[in-house]
Amino acid sequence: MCCCLPSAQKVKKNCKALAVHRLSSHNTNLSILTLLSIKGDWRDAVSLCLRVGWVEGEACAQ
Fold first, then answer.
1. 57: left (phi over 0), alpha (psi -120 to 50) or beta
2. Percent of residues, the chain, with pLDDT higher than 90
3. From which domain of life does this come (predicted)?
4. What pTM, to 2 d.p., does this model score?
C-alpha cells in the first residue's frame, strides 16, 4: 500500500503530501493524484501512487 501505512486517512494524507512535494519536479499524473486525495478517494489515490512508481521505502522516508 502506498506510503506503507495501514490507516486510510494517513495514506490519503501522505499521498497528498508526496504529490504536492513532487509537483514542481515531476511532470506525471500527480495533479490527478492530488485531486483524488483532496476529494478523499484514497483507494484511487493508492492505485495512482503505485502506478507512478512510489515504492514503499521512498514513501516512508518522506
1. alpha
2. 0
3. Eukaryota
4. 0.25
| Cα 47 off chain centre by | 9
Contact assessment for residue 48 and residue 37, using Cβ atoms and an 8 Å cutoff: no
Q: What is the dihedral of CA 41, 43, 47, 53, to 10 degrees?
A: 80
CA distance 24 to 9: 24
Helix (H, G, I), strand (E, B) or coil at 50: helix
- Measured distance between the N- and C-terminal CA atoms of the chain, rounded to whole angstroms: 15
Q: Which residues contact 16 (CB under 8 A, 6 or more apart)?
A: 33, 34, 37, 38, 45
State the total domains in the chain: 1
